[in-house]
Design goal:
mainly beta, four-stranded antiparallel β-sheet, globular
Length: 118
């Protein structure tokens, strides 16, 4: 499994970047896909999930500000981030959905850093 996220960077508070993550080595269309993030000194947390059928779910901290979407033809999942806050600063990763975020053998890409300046 290879997961390549991009689209992050230094963003001002209130900004609206769009993250992309291309997946390979999996039957992408068959899986629920998620975005996760890890802030400095904190555990990785689940941010947003999109099912194989397109249903979505969000962490309370990003609900109403972030939108997850997917393009199965491109094996790509997106995260539209709006109204960014400094507390959104983190490395963002995509992966298959799992509540066992750090389960053994789980492969992670390099993620993409999002830094929000106030």
């Amino acid at each position: 499994v290879q997961l390549q996220a991009c689209g992050g960077g230094l963003v001002q508070a209130g900004g609206s970047p769009r993250l992309s993550c291309a997946a390979s080595g999996i039957r992408f269309a068959s899986y629920a896909m998620s975005w996760y993030r890890q802030a400095p000194g904190k555990q990785r947390e689940l941010v947003a999930t999109i099912s194989s059928g397109g249903g979505t779910n969000y962490a309370d901290s990003v609900k109403g500000r972030f939108t997850i979407s997917r393009d199965n033809a491109k094996n790509t999942v997106y995260l539209q981030m709006n109204s960014l806050k400094p507390e959104d600063t983190a490395v963002y990763y995509c992966n298959r959905f799992s509540l066992r975020i750090e389960s053994p053998g789980r492969t992670w890409g390099q993620g993409t850093q999002v830094t929000v300046s106030s």
